Automatic annotation (TrEMBL):
<feature type="modified residue" description="4-aspartylphosphate">
    <location>
        <position position="55"/>
    </location>
</feature>
<dbReference type="InterPro" id="IPR011006">
    <property type="entry name" value="CheY-like_superfamily"/>
</dbReference>
<keyword id="KW-0597">Phosphoprotein</keyword>
<dbReference type="InterPro" id="IPR001789">
    <property type="entry name" value="Sig_transdc_resp-reg_receiver"/>
</dbReference>
<keyword id="KW-0902">Two-component regulatory system</keyword>
<dbReference type="Pfam" id="PF00072">
    <property type="entry name" value="Response_reg"/>
</dbReference>
<protein>
    <recommendedName>
        <fullName>Response regulatory domain-containing protein</fullName>
    </recommendedName>
</protein>
<feature type="domain" description="Response regulatory">
    <location>
        <begin position="6"/>
        <end position="124"/>
    </location>
</feature>
Length: 125
């Protein structure tokens, strides 16, 4: 069941956070949202997540820098958490760039919520 699956949404747009929360909560995922990469690292220091949805362009610490920092964490469970990039400027990055940064997958904006949900399910199954 999805009920125990915890998803961390890192996104600086409140609109996207709310829409994403609604879609994922409908599927019974437990959602926590933060607005930048530093807040992702702060949350990971306190709790475990099953998946992170990571916006690439965020203030304070962007999604690429944050993903690299997550991959360097000493706690193996936390450092290996699946991370899905959410990006509006995917053309500036190749899938290879995302993989090198440690991202497992990506979903482009504007978000197709059926595709987002399918991608989340793929990495949580």
């Amino acid at each position: 069941m999805n009920e125990n699956k915890k998803v961390l949404v890192a996104e600086d747009s409140s609109v996207i956070i709310n829409l994403t929360k609604n879609v994922l909560m409908f599927e019974k995922y437990h959602i926590t949202a933060v607005k930048n990469g530093q807040q992702v690292l702060d949350k990971l220091a306190k709790e475990d997540f099953d998946l992170i949805l990571m916006d690439i362009n965020m203030p304070i610490m962007d999604g690429i820098a944050c993903t690299k920092a997550v991959r360097l964490l000493e706690d193996e469970k936390k450092s290996k958490v699946p991370i899905i990039a959410i990006t509006g400027n995917y053309k500036n990055y190749t899938l290879d760039d995302f993989k090198k940064a440690g991202l497992n997958d990506y979903v482009q904006k504007p978000l197709d919520y059926d595709h987002l949900l399918a991608t989340v399910k793929k990495h949580l199954s």
